[in-house]
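Model: Ready when you are.
Researcher: Fold this.
Model:
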Amino acid sequence: MNPWTRSQIAAYTEVIGEALSVLERIVLAFRSLRDPVARARRLRVQAARLWSTSERATRNGFLRRAARLAGRAESKWNEAARLQRVDAARETAEADFAALL
């Protein structure tokens, strides 16, 4: 004898389906974190926001905060450039390897 009603089974199936879709989005997010180009793009956006905040802080007279924010923005920008170079080197190495085959 089955203790589960059809509505209970349907409800649990729906919950499991939603949980699986959330897990799929999490996996895709982690994959994009490993993608150096996507990470570089995110770092550039963060750097732009920090520069904007730094400019606002400068206008409002908070010079130490502005300098700190500008330093963080430059750091993120440099990291983005490094990731771009790493990705370009990887693509070149893959092309060279493919040419050898």
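Researcher: Now this one.
Model:
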Amino acid sequence: MIQRRDKVKGPILIPFSLLLVLAVGALFLIAYLYEEKARQQDLATSMRAAERLFGLQIDNDAARLHAALCPISRNEAVAKAFLNGDRGALLAKIGPLFSRLRDLHRVTHFYLLDTDRRVVLRVHKPAMRDDVIDRFTTLKAEQSGRETQGIELGPLGTLTLRAVKPWRFEGQLIGYLELGEEIGHIGDEIHRALGVDLLVTVNQAFLGSEGLLAGTTEASDFVVVSNTLDEVPPFVAKRLGGLNRQLQVSEASVYGDISLYTAVLPLNDAAGREIGDIVVIRDVTKLQAGFRESLVAAASLSLLAGALVFGLFYVILDRVERDYRRQREMETQFARLSTEHQRIVQIEKLSEVGRTISEIAHQINNPLVGVVNMAQLAEREADDPVRVRELLADIRQAGADSHAFLQRMLAFTKVSRFERKPTEMSNLIEETIALFQQSTDRHPAITTELSTSSLMLDLDPVLIRHALFNLLSNASQVNAPDGRITVRLRQSTGPDMRRGWSLEVGDEGPGLSKEVQDKLFTPFFTTQPSGTGLGLAVVQHVAMLHDGRATGENQSHGGAVFALWIPEHPRDQEAST
């Protein structure tokens, strides 16, 4: 038995274990690749955001420089001092403004040029003048006659955003105004906004020997002009030197205890030349540490879950042999129960057939009793042809009702339906009462409360006659010999506020107890020794076929009243009309 159990466990547990290991490994691999791709996409998003923010910051600063030049170009006193060549007056008027611009807006350069682009006044270095400016932005302003701006590289390796405005006075061009600011602060602002570090570098080929900065040599390929890091990581220097330079996003590189992702963007000057690079650096040390911790936690939970599942499978498979015998016994018992269930179902079917036969017998018995009684009366009244014809007509009507009911029961075996037709209610009720009086030996006193005018309702007269006959029969059985039965037809509102008509039969019997009310319309429930318990069930069925309801309740003055409520049909009013 042990070997057989091992053979069962081995073929199942070994493949399961291998599948579990492969699934966990595949899950970790997918998670790692997804995280790697997500980091790459995140850095690419940061790179694009840094690029857009860099350009937006350049445009905003250029707009601010142009806004500062507008009031200066419109100052008449400054223009006249410029035209007169009075540098002292110019410096006195513009110097304080330049100081405010430098303190508030980081403006570092201010030039006043004549129409030949010759420096009339360098506000930031008044001692230097009379040299000709041939920078791209100045030449473009001269050629186009419009405001220009752009980043330009200074001889000392500084990157300066310059804004140049043609200066006109009294409609004549008198020179050019130029403001400039060094762009080193933009890297700090992007660092604060996006949480990435920026290195702005300039290719050494665009600098002369006088442009070398401290800490660089002529052998260097680039010069760092702006840096939000304390020092340039070695792998960044290698990358800028040509290694993987064509890749926008690199893999993680370890620098000390930190992991960095880098991306390189081209830096173009106002003339469109690629003079250097903007290096976007993202510190992913915490992200990688968090990811590793997540992987370790997921691996631990997966192994624990796998061990639990493995142990559960082991226990289950170990009990297979014992459970097999128990299962076989249960299957045997189930087969026996299934056979018993089929027998019970067959008994229920036979019981249902018996109930249907009882209902048919109950419905046919009432008119047949009337037929027998009226036939006996006809024998006694043989000498009165008129009376005999009346009794024969009643016999024919009872036979027709029985025939119609039998036809309806045959159709009911296929589908429960009934035939509506316009019916005059007063005649239907009076005929049913007369038929009932002739079919019973008690001949109870029956009063009616009907509409004085003709009332046509769209319903099945045969079913309504059977229902009323059953209600009269029940009332007669519970009434005292001198008791009275009241039949009324009145308009009433249903439980769902629909308009309709209520056919009510009241008696003067003992009323309904609580126990009887709970089982009032239950088939085969009866309080009479000779009853079948199907009369009220038939009444309820007739009500349901007419989309109505049947009720029974006690009257305040004694006795009970049973009501068959039928909602108004759209054809009722047409029939009445």
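Researcher: Key takeaway?
Model: Residues 2-73 form the longest helix (72 residues).
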